[in-house]
Amino acid sequence: MPTSDLKIVSLLPSATEIVAALGLTDAIVGRSHECDYPPEIQNRPVCTEARLDAEKPSAQIDRDVRRLVKDALSIYQIKIDILEQLQPTHIVTQDQCDVCAVNFPEVEKAVAELTRSQPKVISLQPNQLSEVWADIERVAATLGVDSQPLLSQLQSRVEAIQQKTQNLSLADQPTVAAIEWTDPLMASGNWIPELVDMAGGHHLFAALGKHSPYLEWDALLKTDPQVMIIMPCGFDLERTRKETQQLSQRPEWSELQAVRNKRVYITDGNAYFNRPGPRLVDSLEILAEILHPELFSFGYRGTGWDVVETRHATS
Question: Which of 15, 17, 80, 138 has the most CB atoms less than 10 A away?
């Protein structure tokens, strides 16, 4: 199919970024309610909505998610009427995390109800960096474009960092707790342990390629990481700053060496770390300049990350 005939609906922010990075922004005719990058896709029709209120406190969001999953309900729903109007040739979705986007069975069900089009569904399921590269390659092949220019550019940026961090001594690789959620506490899994290690740190708690685990405060205190990087799923820098202020009210907070040494950082997890697409390389660069400012300066401070102004909790 000529690329001029493509009509792509992306139901996943990272997929939207992949399609756009492959040079097919103009072919995106519809998006999810969370797709916001690149900025020019924000005027495309929205094809999904959430059954969750993301403005609620973190603990309530977690409870709502668990209730919906327990009741076997999708956290998101598809606007089938919009999909019918758009008549897409392709739908890009995911089968990786029911909390992150519309789940795959919901997409299959919606496609079965369409009468005016029979779109091809591309489903992504990356759990580590090599699988993100493979997804980019597969999306490109399915849509009839070349993935190599994009992949070469991304991989060369990764290699530029690895060349500088691979010779660091163990003593120069700080222990890092990457935090995926603040209430209840969760460690960042999937591709994050790999990115932390590539950036010259030593990740704690989560296993590469595995979903983010709940983290007990006792375990955090006992392990006492040298660095804490807070990257809540779906939250921008300012929302993360507020979440961290609440975290710092806990009496255990001031016992952590990362707090005492002013090595607690907040990030824009929504734009970077939570999205398995091209900007995971930006995420790696953010981690590199956080962990090793003596080696790296990419200019993300203030937009992609910031230092937390730590203060001791009052009893």
Answer: 15
How far apart are alpha carbons 78 and 74 in whole angstroms?
10
Compute the radius of gyration of the chain from its Cα atoms: 20
Determine the pLDDT at residue 314: 43
Q: Which residues contact 154 (CB under 8 A, 6 or more apart)?
A: 133, 278, 281
Kindly report whether the peptide bond that precedes residue 276 is cis, defined as omega within 30 degrees of 0.
no
Tokens of 13: 């922010």
- By the 10 Å C-beta count (0-12 exposed, 13-18 middle, 19+ buried), 157 is classed as middle
Are 43 and 30 a contacting pair, CB within 8 Å? no
- Map 123-180 to HEC letters: EECCCCHHHHHHHHHHHHHHHCCCCHHHHHHHHHHHHHHHHHHCCCCHHHCCEEEEEE
Pairing of β 202-203 and β 76-78: unpaired
Spacing of C-alpha 255 from chain mean position: 29
Please check whether residue 41 is in contact with residue 28, taking contact to mean a CB–CB distance below 8 angstroms. Answer: yes
Q: Mean pLDDT in runs of 10 for the chain (315 residues)?
A: 88 94 97 93 91 68 64 69 93 70 73 84 91 96 97 97 94 96 90 96 86 90 96 91 90 94 96 94 98 97 90 46
Question: How much is the pLDDT for 155?
Answer: 97
Closest CA to 94 of 105, 86, 83, 110: 105
The structure's pTM equals 0.89
Contact between 182 and 189 under an 8 Å Cβ cutoff? The reply is no
Looking at residue 141, its pLDDT comes to: 96
Token couple for 251: 């009496």
